[in-house]
């Protein structure tokens, strides 16, 4: 099985790269900008041809949620049009497309965990562009799995955990919102779930699936920040504040907990509790420092 991973230098792509070393018979080919722009049909097509690709794992995306509000053209070009290009190339090369999407396709007004079939109703440009990308994949790709995730963090790139570690070392107190509820996801756990799927997938079968994946459990950004300070041994006091006191450019879903029953049932994926994964990541960062 020959697997093309796009966006390989991002959080999820980097974690997949780490795991791929132990993946035996499966051959991974990792690409990111500037060598591979997913909006170029010509480039994606020629790499699929060159490497005899059977599976495309799309980790590439425009992920700057606030910036997307003033740079909508780029967000749609990457998240909608790039997804369409990958779906077209997957079709032309008889490949399975595994595509990563987001909890931001929902409006956040639910009080129970979102299931895959719940109606999407994204509020900001980022969420709308990701939803349009999902729709293109539905329309074009003969075989696909869309995996929606939330609150991704890792040792790579910029994310909430790394920001809290930096600010927690610089400040005595920090205000963090306590009325946005969701679940953090360690990108290494999501990468492991993708590898589990790749180990069991039948290349001759056509898939048309949407799944949800985050770590287990539920928390607010405030709870998440408190856990980061606690586990990292930082004395910074985290103060809970309402979102109204912390205006952000793009709207955020108030509630974005994802129901993960389907991915667990179909693929036997075991999902760690969010605080345990956070502790493992912090240990990994400290060992490397
Ligand atoms: N981060 C989160 O909290 C979060 C939450 C829910 C869902 N997700 C989804 O999870 C997936 C992985 O997220 P992530 O946090 O790993 O993202 P990330 O760290 O921002 O990585 C995305 C990668 O894609 C690259 N990229 C951007 N435009 C591209 C293009 N046109 N062609 C090829 N590569 C391009 C980026 O390069 P540059 O850095 O040079 O732009 C970056 O290396 C994405 O689909 C995202 O929407 C993320």
Question: Could you explain how this protein is built, in words?
Answer:
With 289 residues, this protein is α/β, with parallel strands linked by helices. The chain has a single domain (2-158, 185-216, 256-272), classed as NAD(P)-binding Rossmann-like Domain (Rossmann fold, 3-Layer(aba) Sandwich). The protein has helices spanning 11-20, 41-51, 72-92, 125-140, 160-170, 187-200, 221-232, 261-267, 274-288; strands spanning 2-6, 27-31, 55-58, 96-102, 144-149, 152-153, 173-177, 181-182, 185-186, 208-212, 219-220, 237-241. The chain has a 6-stranded parallel β-sheet with strand order 2-1-3-4-5-10, with helices on both faces. The protein is globular. The protein starts with a strand and ends with a helix. The mean pLDDT is 96. The protein binds NADP nicotinamide-adenine-dinucleotide phosphate. NADP nicotinamide-adenine-dinucleotide phosphate binds next to helix 1, helix 3 and strand 4.
């Amino acid at each position: 099985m020959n697997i093309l991973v796009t966006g390989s230098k991002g959080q999820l792509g980097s974690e997949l790269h780490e795991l791929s070393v132990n993946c035996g018979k499966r051959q991974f080919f990792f690409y990111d900008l500037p060598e591979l722009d997913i909006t170029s049909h010509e480039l994606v097509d020629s790499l699929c041809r060159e490497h005899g690709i059977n599976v495309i794992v799309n980790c590439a995306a425009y992920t700057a949620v606030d910036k997307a509000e003033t740079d909508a053209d780029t967000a749609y070009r990457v998240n909608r049009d790039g997804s369409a290009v990958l779906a077209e190339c997957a079709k032309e090369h008889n490949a399975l497309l595994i595509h990563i999407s987001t909890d931001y396709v929902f409006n956040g007004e639910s009080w129970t965990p979102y299931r895959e079939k719940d109606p999407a109703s994204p509020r900001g440009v980022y969420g709308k562009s990701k939803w349009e990308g999902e729709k293109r994949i539905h329309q074009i790709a003969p075989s696909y799995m869309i995996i929606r995730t939330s609150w991704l963090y890792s040792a790579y790139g910029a994310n909430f955990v790394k920001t809290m570690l930096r600010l927690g070392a610089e400040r005595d107190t920090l205000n963090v919102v306590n009325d946005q509820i969701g679940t953090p996801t360690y990108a290494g756990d999501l990468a492991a779930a993708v590898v589990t799927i790749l180990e069991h997938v039948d290349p001759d079968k056509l898939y048309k699936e949407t799944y949800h994946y985050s770590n287990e459990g539920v928390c607010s950004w405030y709870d998440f920040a408190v856990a980061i300070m606690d586990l990292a041994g930082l004395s910074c006091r985290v103060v809970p504040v309402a979102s109204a006191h912390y205006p952000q450019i793009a709207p955020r879903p108030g509630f974005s907990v994802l129901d993960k029953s389907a991915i667990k049932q179909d693929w036997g994926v075991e999902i760690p509790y969010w605080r345990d994964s956070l502790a493992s990541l912090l240990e990994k960062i400290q060992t490397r420092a």
